Amino acid sequence: MSFFKRLVMFYKQGFNHLWRKWLSLPLVLLFPVILIGLFTFLGFSIFTPSKEAIIEVGLIDWINQKKR
Protein backbone atom coordinates (compact mmCIF):
# COMPACT_ATOMS: atom_id res chain seq x y z
CA MET A 1 0.00 0.00 0.00
CA SER A 2 2.85 2.36 0.79
CA PHE A 3 4.26 1.80 -2.70
CA PHE A 4 1.04 2.99 -4.35
CA LYS A 5 0.81 6.06 -2.10
CA ARG A 6 4.34 7.06 -3.03
CA LEU A 7 3.65 6.36 -6.70
CA VAL A 8 0.55 8.56 -6.67
CA MET A 9 2.43 11.27 -4.76
CA PHE A 10 5.25 11.29 -7.34
CA TYR A 11 2.76 11.37 -10.20
CA LYS A 12 0.98 14.35 -8.63
CA GLN A 13 4.25 16.12 -7.95
CA GLY A 14 5.45 15.53 -11.50
CA PHE A 15 2.14 16.68 -12.95
CA ASN A 16 2.18 19.87 -10.85
CA HIS A 17 5.76 20.60 -11.91
CA LEU A 18 4.85 20.00 -15.56
CA TRP A 19 1.79 22.24 -15.23
CA ARG A 20 3.90 25.12 -13.87
CA LYS A 21 6.39 24.72 -16.70
CA TRP A 22 3.62 24.39 -19.28
CA LEU A 23 2.25 27.85 -18.44
CA SER A 24 5.54 29.56 -19.35
CA LEU A 25 6.41 27.27 -22.27
CA PRO A 26 4.41 29.18 -24.92
CA LEU A 27 6.17 32.40 -23.91
CA VAL A 28 9.56 30.76 -24.25
CA LEU A 29 8.68 29.38 -27.68
CA LEU A 30 7.03 32.56 -29.00
CA PHE A 31 9.69 35.02 -27.78
CA PRO A 32 12.22 34.26 -30.57
CA VAL A 33 9.49 34.45 -33.23
CA ILE A 34 8.29 37.80 -31.91
CA LEU A 35 11.86 39.09 -31.68
CA ILE A 36 12.70 38.07 -35.26
CA GLY A 37 9.45 39.60 -36.50
CA LEU A 38 10.21 42.85 -34.70
CA PHE A 39 13.71 43.09 -36.18
CA THR A 40 12.38 42.25 -39.65
CA PHE A 41 9.72 44.94 -39.38
CA LEU A 42 12.27 47.50 -38.20
CA GLY A 43 14.64 46.58 -41.03
CA PHE A 44 11.97 46.92 -43.68
CA SER A 45 10.68 50.17 -42.25
CA ILE A 46 14.17 51.69 -42.21
CA PHE A 47 15.33 50.58 -45.66
CA THR A 48 12.13 51.04 -47.66
CA PRO A 49 11.21 54.61 -48.53
CA SER A 50 7.75 55.81 -47.62
CA LYS A 51 5.45 56.93 -50.42
CA GLU A 52 4.74 60.21 -48.67
CA ALA A 53 8.37 61.33 -48.63
CA ILE A 54 9.14 63.91 -51.28
CA ILE A 55 12.34 63.42 -53.26
CA GLU A 56 13.95 66.64 -54.38
CA VAL A 57 16.21 66.57 -57.42
CA GLY A 58 18.51 69.41 -58.36
CA LEU A 59 20.03 69.78 -61.82
CA ILE A 60 23.21 71.72 -62.48
CA ASP A 61 24.27 72.70 -65.95
CA TRP A 62 28.05 72.54 -65.69
CA ILE A 63 28.60 73.35 -69.35
CA ASN A 64 26.72 76.65 -69.53
CA GLN A 65 27.52 77.77 -66.01
CA LYS A 66 29.12 81.23 -65.79
CA LYS A 67 32.52 81.33 -64.22
CA ARG A 68 32.96 83.75 -61.36
Short account of what is shown:
This protein is mainly alpha-helical and 68 residues long. Helices cover 68% and strands 0% of the residues.
Protein described:
The chain is mainly alpha-helical and 68 residues long. 68% of the residues lie in helices and 0% in strands. The model has no long low-confidence stretch (mean pLDDT 83).
Q: Keywords for this structure?
A:
mainly alpha; 68 residues; 1 helix
How is the topology of this model organized?
Elements: H1 2-47
Radius of gyration: 32 Å
**How is the quaternary structure best described?**
single chain
Helix share bin: 55-70%
Largest sheet: number of strands, sense, barrel closure: none
**From the helix content, strand content and strand pairing, which structural class follows?**
mainly alpha
**Low-pLDDT stretches:** none
Count up the helices.
Answer: 1
